[in-house]
Design goal:
CATH architecture of the largest domain: 3-Layer(bba) Sandwich
Bound molecules: flavin-adenine dinucleotide, FE2/S2 (inorganic) cluster
Low-confidence stretches: none
Structural class: alpha+beta
Distance between the termini: 24 Å
Oligomer: single chain
CATH class of the largest domain: Alpha Beta
Number of strands: 26
Radius of gyration: 22 Å
Length: about 500
């Protein structure tokens, strides 16, 4: 673990404040009703709802449950997804905005009802959420009107409880926050037994279609009539959804301030800084999050933590920063998640592209897909359908602009333009592209001087990985695959490790 003195531990507060669970690896040869791949909020909620409906499930997780993105979220449960309803109105129509609003509001209710029903101690609390701008009144007024049209519980205001002035804000009533791992680990406890299973340390690598679908994993195969792919970015992707999204990184700091935090969650439109608080052993901890950028593109990831630190110290009397962490989420072309059947198949489902709002969107996904499998009507399903032909112009143009560099990365391979370095030129703790005699090599030197040399070619589609100096990972700038410093795959869509090379010199 890499600790920065000013930024506290490199660890998510949610991970550190809850013990993990230990489930075994796959028992080969099983048959269940539904196989669910990936145990974040979308996968666990789907497994929970299906098991409750007396459907047998196998939830298969490549690493540990609730660890990847959901273990590193900031867990605001809200329909206030920054400025979105005015965009949805123009990309779709007012009915689209209404469906999106209703689905997210019902997801908040669903989480609350599960918490109450199971009496889960997960610090769930209903509170208001403010979306504010420090300088743009008209944009907030337009968004507030779109929210009202979408029947959201909002009001326009020019004051918030924040310790600094805002030009305008939308106050969403009755939103919520919780501790995501306390909630989801509790749901996971209900899944195993009576013909249902959770397996960890088991990576799915293929889905073979048939009367019974067969999921092939690195620990053997398992069969089911229905398969749900909730692996954050789908590894089984006949509709090539990965090409209709891009990965965006965000950062979070957990800190303590002299003054008590304000009642609410806060989302700034401009720099996308968000604030919430959470109970902790040391008292009320404030979480600031944001500083977004496209994943795998930055030279110095610490700069983004520093941006958050500057904002927090500029606005609060910060006593100490105890935690820093980061993760990423996928942004879709029309700003709406992809939830439903994968292309060309009627019994394989996918949920992805949560746009940094997966607490509600992951729950919406579980509700829609569960209804589809159980044969219940669901009035939101066609709006979220991954095969939808909308959206129209504006968001498509914006998306193509953002994604143009993927084509560049794939076509050019930037190594030829880069200087060559020898492993001996690496500093301890440094990761760098070496470009040894034109060969695509990257390397990291650990604190003891050991060098880990790897192919720089992402095993997904061949882009060149870049060093993330804050997390000590190799991140792919194209579709978000991530690898440890010694090449093990951490995050898809890549399914395998970076090729390891022997180090020729120290
Ligand atoms: C910094 C940050 C803050 C955020 N804050 C908020 C917030 O306040 N509110 C909000 O609503 N949303 C927020 N989000 C977004 C939210 O955290 C995500 O949308 C959500 O957690 C994604 O959940 P998931 O289930 O899709 O993915 P994950 O939690 O990543 O789960 C997917 C699982 O699939 C597993 N997996 C991957 N490949 C395979 C395979 N081949 N076989 C088996 N298993 C596999 C992974 O190991 C992982 O456990 C935030 C995101 C970021 C980046
Ligand atoms: S994630 Fe697609 S090429 Fe790396």
């Amino acid at each position: 673990m890499n600790d920065d003195q000013n930024l506290g531990k490199l660890e998510s507060f949610w991970m550190e404040s809850t013990p993990g669970r230990d489930y075994g690896t796959l028992e080969e040869g099983l048959t269940v009703d539904v196989i669910i791949l990936g145990a974040g909020i979308a996968g666990i909620t789907s497994a929970y709802l299906l098991k409750k409906a007396e459907v047998s499930v196998a939830l298969i997780e490549a690493r540990k449950i609730v660890k990847d993105v959901t273990g590193h979220t900031t867990a605001k449960i809200t329909s206030a997804h920054n400025v979105i309803y005015s965009n949805l109105e123009s990309n779709f129509d007012s009915n689209g905005a209404r469906i999106y609003a209703e689905a997210n509001e019902r997801a908040i209710d669903k989480i609350e009802s599960i918490v109450k029903e199971r009496n889960i101690e997960c610090d769930f609390k209903r509170i208001p959420c403010y979306v504010y701008s420090e300088d743009e009144k008209d944009m907030i007024k337009k968004e507030a009107k779109a929210c009202e049209d979408a029947k959201l519980p909002v009001s326009y205001t020019e004051s918030t409880p924040l310790p600094y002035d805002v030009a305008a804000a939308i106050k969403y009533k009755n939103q919520a926050e919780f501790h995501p791992r306390k909630y989801l680990l509790n749901l996971a406890d209900t899944i195993t037994g009576n013909g249902s299973y959770i397996f960890e340390g088991t990576r799915a690598i293929d889905v073979k279609k048939g009367e019974m679908n067969e999921v092939v994993t690195d620990k053997g195969s398992v069969q089911a009539k229905n398969v749900i792919v909730t692996t954050h970015v789908p590894f089984y992707d006949p509709g090539r959804l990965f090409a209709r999204m891009y990965p965006s990184m965000s950062y979070a700091l957990g800190f303590y301030a002299s003054e008590p935090f304000l009642e609410g969650m806060f989302i700034s439109t401009k720099l996308t800084f968000t604030y919430r608080s959470t109970p902790s052993d040391k008292g009320e901890m404030i979480i600031v999050s944001g500083a977004n950028h496209k994943a795998g593109h930055e030279k110095d990831n610490f700069e983004f933590y520093k941006k958050l630190e500057k904002h927090a110290r500029g606005h609060f009397n910060v006593k100490s920063i105890d935690y820093h962490w980061s993760t990423m989420d996928y942004i879709t072309m029309d700003k709406v998640p992809y939830i439903g059947k994968v292309k060309f198949d009627s019994r394989i489902y996918v949920a992805t592209g949560f746009m940094k709002w997966g607490m509600t969107s992951g729950t919406v996904a579980a509700m829609i897909i569960t209804d589809m499998i159980l044969g219940n009507d669901n009035k939101w399903s066609s709006f979220f359908d991954p095969s939808r032909s909308k959206p129209v112009l504006e968001s498509t143009k914006e998306f193509l602009g953002t994604n143009i560099d993927v084509a560049k990365e794939l076509l050019s391979g930037r190594l030829s333009r880069q200087k060559s370095y020898k492993p001996s030129e690496l500093e301890k703790g440094e990761g760098r592209v070496l470009n040894v005699d034109g060969n695509k090599v990257v390397a990291y030197k650990d604190e003891n001087g050991k060098v880990y040399a790897l192919s720089s070619v992402c095993v997904h589609l061949g882009c060149q990985v870049n060093w993330n100096n804050a997390e000590k990972t190799w991140d792919c700038p194209c579709h978000g695959s991530r690898y440890t410093y010694d090449g093990e795959v951490l995050h898809g869509p890549a399914l395998g490790n970076l090729k390891r090379y022997e180090v020729l010199e120290k």
